Amino acid sequence: MLKFVKGAILFAGLAVLFLTFGPSAVNPFAKLSKSADRRSIDAFALPAMDGSEWSLGAHQGQVVLLNFWATWCPPCRAETPALVNVHNELSGRGFSVVGVSMDDDPASAVPGFVEKYKISYPILKPEGFPLANHIDTLPTSLLLDKHGRVARTYTGMIPETVLRRDVEALLSES
To answer: What's the 3-state SS for 11-76?
Structure first.
């Protein structure tokens, strides 16, 4: 019995470490970078799935979450409801989520996904977007402040409470 208890404790400890520091984990205790340390990303415009064009410049003065994801990615599917919730609740206050589909054929893969998850934010195609070439892990998200500077990079699924906390902090900045 003692051997079983020790094994269970070891397993639980390893599980906690993996969930905290594993490749698809976001550290909930991490903070936004200081305003003076934030770097701008180059302005860009990309085609949206609906045929329009989305540009970062048109969202100056807003907090933007740039989410790189794919329909085949389990953590991406798991985080989508949280992104939809926070976008729907805070979009009237100057926050926007924009997804960049990393699917091989977004035209066939994305529409059903958007319908299933009731995604109300734009989904972009990464055609010719140099930043997309540097994304190694999905999902990866960049939280941009009102000046288009990266305030935080999330590698892996973002817990809704963490996203909401960070967005609220950026919305309250002057």
So the answer is: HHHHHHHHHHHCCCCCCCCCCCCCHHHCEECCCCEEEECCCCEEEHHHHCCCEEEEEEECCCCHHH
Whether this model's pTM surpasses 0.85: no
CB 62 within 8 A of CB 140: no
Domain count, the chain: 1
DSSP 158: P
Residue 23's Cβ-count burial label (10 Å; 0-12, 13-18, 19+) is: exposed
Instruction: Give residue 102's pLDDT.
Output: 95
* Containing structural domain, residue 77: 28-171
Q: Is residue 116 part of a domain?
A: yes
Q: Is the peptide bond before 139 cis (omega within 30 degrees of 0)?
A: yes
